[in-house]
Write a structure and sequence with these properties.
425 residues, alpha/beta, seven-stranded mixed β-sheet, three-stranded antiparallel β-sheet, 8 helices, 12% strand
């Protein structure tokens, strides 16, 4: 069953940046809410409130919403109009398809002077003889009733016939209240019978015929359970039998005739919730049908007697390995630490190696070679001269550049000593 929580309101207040104190419009329809609460404390500035298609049985905790203009409570379990006197700005009220049988409770809306539209169609009181005349005469501020405009002549005639119509309405209300009391007693009796049947069924089947393994513990190896191949067939047969029984119960529930009452709506919701829980339970395979065998070089997973084997890229420790399964997704996780490594959280640290004096000296020498230091002379200026960080080599012009004198050797066969040739500069 749903409840109105701060988180629920914030999730439905995205159009207001999830700020709820200044919220002016809120939609909480189809949330299976049973009780109206907290809204008048958290959302004082509300102008529009949608609460249709829930399981609200009473109008309450809205009297402090002074700015509320439109309240939609259609398709709920409301049996009486009440606690709306404080909603001073209310102009439209929708109570379509509820269980309002006390038509005289519309008198509580006489103080809502701004109320212009009212919807009561689909309620037991809408079938009363003189229903429209009574509402039109009682709430003279109304302009529309059940989507139909109220004419001036219609109101005059309703006011003239009010004493007779009101007496007739009271008699019908009394008959309805007696019938409603009998329906409540019958619903409570059926609920007790179902609860007693459920307790008897649980006592016969124990915990429901399901065995849930401890997922955090190491699963047994394949060699230790030679008779394991027959177990999946038995377990699968039990699951199919239970699924067939659930289908029969479901058909019986929906084919059983029942009255449209607040209790029947609650019973339908409970049945649908039970179906949802059963579906979630049967969505994933039972853990007893899975067996994991971890070896140093491979891992084997038996699913319903069928093997699935993986060769590991490194050697692992079977004794330190464990398997666990997520209760949310059903995923199987096998953790296998490598040989020579220690797992701490999510980080892996290699096995420590014993250090010797020679090895330590080699490590320090290597570290000193790799380390580079930048020394700054404090006497220099604090701001480095970027232009002079790299000193370029000064190039002299080609024609001025001096080249080393080449003195030819007399041993060279091509050498010819000509005195008339001036020496090279």
């Amino acid at each position: 069953m749903g409840r109105i929580t701060e988180d629920l309101i914030r999730r439905n207040a995205e159009h207001n940046d999830c700020v709820i104190f200044s919220l002016e419009e809120l939609s909480l329809h189809q949330q299976e809410i049973e009780r109206l609460e907290h809204i008048d404390k958290w959302c004082r500035d509300l102008k529009i409130l949608y609460l249709q298609n829930n399981l609200i049985g009473k109008i309450e905790n809205v009297s402090k919403l002074k700015k509320l203009e439109y309240l939609n409570l259609a398709l709920n379990n409301i049996e009486k109009i009440e606690n709306l006197e404080g909603c001073e700005g209310l102009t439209k009220l929708d109570l379509t398809v509820n269980f309002i049988g006390e038509l005289s409770s519309v008198k509580t809306l006489q103080g809502n002077i701004h109320l212009k539209e009212l919807f009561l169609m689909g309620n037991p009181c809408a079938d009363f003889d003189g229903y429209r005349q009574f509402v039109v005469a009682t709430l003279q501020q109304l302009k529309w009733l059940d989507g139909k405009e109220i004419e001036r002549s219609e109101r005059i005639q309703a006011l003239q016939n009010l004493p007779v119509v009101e007496q007739r309405i009271r008699e019908q209300e009394k008959a309805y209240c007696l019938k409603r009391a009998k329906d409540k007693e019958e619903a409570q009796r059926e609920l007790k019978e179902e609860e007693s049947k459920g307790e008897m069924g649980r006592s016969h089947t124990g915990s429901g015929g399901h065995w849930h393994a401890d997922l955090s513990a190491t699963l047994p190896s394949f060699e230790e359970s030679k008779d394991y191949i027959q177990a999946p067939e038995i377990q699968e047969g039990q699951c199919k039998g239970k699924e067939l029984d659930d289908r029969e119960d479901d058909l019986e529930f929906w084919n059983k005739p029942s009255l449209y009452t607040p209790e029947s709506r609650l019973e339908t919701l409970r049945h649908m919730e039970k179906q949802r829980r059963d579906q979630e339970r049967l969505r994933y395979m039972d853990t007893s049908l899975i067996d994991v065998d971890v070896q140093p070089t491979y891992v084997r997973v038996m699913v319903k007697g069928k093997p699935f084997q993986l060769v590991l890229p490194a050697e692992v420790k079977p004794d330190s390995s464990f398997a666990k399964r997520s209760q949310t997704t059903g995923h199987l996780v096998v953790c296998m630490p490598k040989v020579g490594e220690v797992i701490i959280g999510c980080q892996r640290t290699s096995k420590p190696v014993k250090s010797t004096p020679d090895s330590s000296k080699e490590q320090t020498s290597k570290r000193s070679q790799q380390m580079e230091r930048l020394e700054v002379d404090p006497s220099k200026r604090s701001i480095p001269d970027v232009a002079n960080i790299v000193q370029e080599k000064k190039h002299m012009p080609r024609r001025v550049r001096t080249e080393p004198k080449i003195i030819p050797s007399e041993e060279d066969p091509d050498f010819e000593d000509n005195p008339e040739v001036p020496p090279l500069i």
